[in-house]
Amino acid sequence: MTVNSLPFLLFLAGLCLVYYLLCPLRFRWTVLLAASVGFYLLACAASPVYLFLTSVLAWAGGLWLDRLEQAFQAEKAAKGPSPSLTKVYKAKKKRAAAVMIIAILSMLLVLKYGGFFVRIGNSVLALGGLALPVPSFLAPLGISYYTLIAIGYLLDLYKNRFRAQRNYAKLLLFLAYFPQITQGPFSRYQATAPQLYEGHRFDYHNISWGCQRMLWGFFKKLVVADRMQPMVSQIFRDFEQLSSITCLLGCVYMTVWMYADFSAYMDIVAGASELFGVHIEENFRRPFLSKSLAEFWRRWHITLGAWFREYMFYPLALTPTAVRFGKMGRRRFGVRIGKLFPSLFALFFVWSCTGFWHDASWRYIFWGMANGVVIIGAMVLEPQFAAAKGFLHIREDSRWWNAFCIVRTFLLVSILKVFPGPADTRSSLRFILHLFTAVRMPAGWPELLPGLTLGDGVFLAFSLLLIAAVDLIQERRPVRDALARKPLAVRWCCYLFLIAAVLCMGCFQTSLAGGFAYAQY
Fold it and tell me: What is the pTM of this model?
């Protein structure tokens, strides 16, 4: 069952009836738990054991850390504050957190990346004429998401940000909550868990706004993303028969398609969650209005970026290795660059891990490193860029300059799709070579928009302009607030137009895992 399907809508309707009409207020969290477990079993019946094992390890690890903290506080109260006592208990907590995190992370590494590591090992063993069989691993749906959420929970406990959840069923609800289990967002326990455990009363405002957001998500998914997906797939599959111009357009199409697809999922699940009074964290903030690549990634997949920044970037930038790296940079490149070196060291590592998180392949690692290199280059060359803008008398607040930066960033993001767009790493390298060797004019409309009729192209262009207009309005003020102030007739004209567009122009079929592109990560 996917969230862009009729069974999901029936599932939601039934869940609302049970949640609001049949269950007492204090036990409504159990309805969400049963629904979340049932949803996951229907979506991924083959491998629920890993979700339950991860949740058990996170629960046990939380209790372990909590017990150590309480023992430390009790001993400190009995004997008084002591640096040696603090050091002992800090070491114990660090050891406990490391054991549980490694246990949780190992499942992800084996199931999602086991084959990749074996292939690397075979490359080394091949020098001696040896090779290992490559095992066939199947990563369970959502494992990349609930694993990092569980690790974040344990790391926050290690930092004493809250008390451990002693009720296993409640922690399982937090990790398996059905709107976020397959594609995020990466919710923080202190922000989301209290909303899940609190029983919410029926609120027409939540129901109305939740349905509005879901409708907008269905429009973006069924009318735009699913119409673009076959076109994008065909370009990257048959790129060797196409011109370099068409291949570059394919990168642009892929960027737009992924935004329509992924943000549509977030709209649907955020709206579905809103039906029950639970507001999950936002994952997009109009990324195509970004003026730099760094800003783009602060607006795209926001919770993933926040996870890497909180739990990897800052700890790495403060490690002894990063500090020594900074001292070496000061000696060789001056104070300004030297101060940046710890951040540059952490950035490159984090972006490599970001690419690896997306997929166990070199093409995604190259994509991650390429993003890191561009962002690092912008940081290092910032004074030169500022001097060039001053020489050319470019004002930062100029409308034309801002428009140029937005277009430049969008094209840069699109060009970097040369790495993940093709089917595998070898195809990615051939694709890049093809861009420089197939310089010719496209063979007309069918090559520029393969698989689309002229009517489809016109309607797709109109739909994309509508999404862009909504994003521009949303950048200044919430669209739903603005719509709520309109007359009833105007509001229902908007709703009926979107419903008609979905029913008449929607593509009601998909072949991707989970129905959405990011479900495969």
Answer: 0.93
